[in-house]
C-alpha cells in the first residue's frame, strides 16, 4: 500500500525546521557568551584578590609588629614573646602558599581578614561604612543620568547656539577635577551662602553637594558620548517616519531618538560605577562624610593593610557586577543587541 506524501508540506516545513535549529543554536551561543562573561568576572575577582594578598605579604615591615603597634597605639620593637602568639594566631609564619590558600578560603566564606588598627573583622568595618558610600554613588549616578537625558534631548543635534552651548557644557563638565569642584561647591554654597551644611552628615541636605561633586563631571562625560550618537540617530530613516506621522520635534527626540543614543553611554556606566567609588574618596574627604572613602584614607595612612585590601576587593566586586548589569541592560533597551 502506497501512502501519499504532500511534497508542499515537506517543502514548507524545511524553513521552519531550519529556523528552529537557528533559534536553538542562537540560544546556545547566548549562553556561551554569558558563561564567558561570568568566567571573565571570576578571573577579575581572583586577580584582585591575588594582588591584595601579595600586597599584604610583600608590604615592608613585620606584620606581627605592625599589628601590635597599631592595636596598642605605640610604635616600638617587639620581643619574640610578644610576636609569637600573633604569628600563631594569624599564620604569619606559614609558607606563602599556605597563607594564600587560607586567604582564598576565607574570601569564599566572606572573611576578608582582621583590621590591624581596629582589631575587628574587615567585613564588619566595611559593612558599617558601605551604606553611606552606596547612597552617595548611586545618587550621583542617577543625577548624572538625569542631567544627560535632559541636556541631550534638548540640545543634541541642533544647529545654532543651542547645540553649541550643550556641547560646551558637556566638555567643560567632563574636565572638572572632582576635588576642585567639591572645594568650590563647599566654599560657595556651604560656607558663604550657608545653604547646605559644611559637614555632610546623614541629612538629605548634606548629601546634595557631595552628589553634585561626583555627578557633574560624570554627566559631562556620558553626555559627550550620548550626544554624538544622538546626532547620528537623527539622520536615520525612522526619524523621518516618526515626523511623517505628525509627531513634534521634542516627542521624536524623547520617544524615538533618545532610546538609540543612550546605548553607548550605558556601555560606560559599569566603568562609571567604579569611577564613582574612587571619586567617593574625594567627596567624603572634602565634605567630612562617613563612608568607605574616609575609611580607606584612614586605613592607608595607618598602614592597615588588611582593611585596604578588603576595600580593594569590594570595589573590584562592585565594578564586576556593575559591568554584568550593563550587559543585561543592553538587551532591555534594545532586544536586538547581542551581548559581545
Distance between the termini: 55 Å
Beta content: under 5%
Number of DSSP-assigned strands = 0
Name of the level-1 CATH class of one domain: Mainly Alpha
Q: How many alpha or pi helices?
A: 14
CATH 4th-level superfamily of one domain: MetI-like
Regions with pLDDT < 50 over 5+ consecutive residues?
7-23
Largest sheet: none
Oligomeric assembly = single chain
Report on the architecture of this protein.
- Belongs to the binding-protein-dependent transport system permease family.
- The protein is an all-alpha fold and 340 residues long.
- The protein has a domain at 122-333: Orthogonal Bundle (MetI-like fold), CATH 1.10.3720.
- Helix content is 77%, strand content 0%.
- The longest helix is centred in the first third of the chain and has 52 residues, at 7-58.
- The N and C termini lie far apart (55 Å).
Helix/strand layout:
Blueprint: H1 7-58, H2 63-72, H3 80-90, H4 96-108, H5 122-155, H6 161-174, H7 178-192, H8 204-233, H9 237-244, H10 249-261, H11 263-267, H12 269-286, H13 292-301, H14 305-333
Helix pairs in contact: 1-4, 1-14, 2-3, 5-6, 5-8, 5-10, 5-12, 5-14, 6-8, 7-8, 7-12, 8-10, 8-12, 9-10, 12-13, 12-14, 13-14
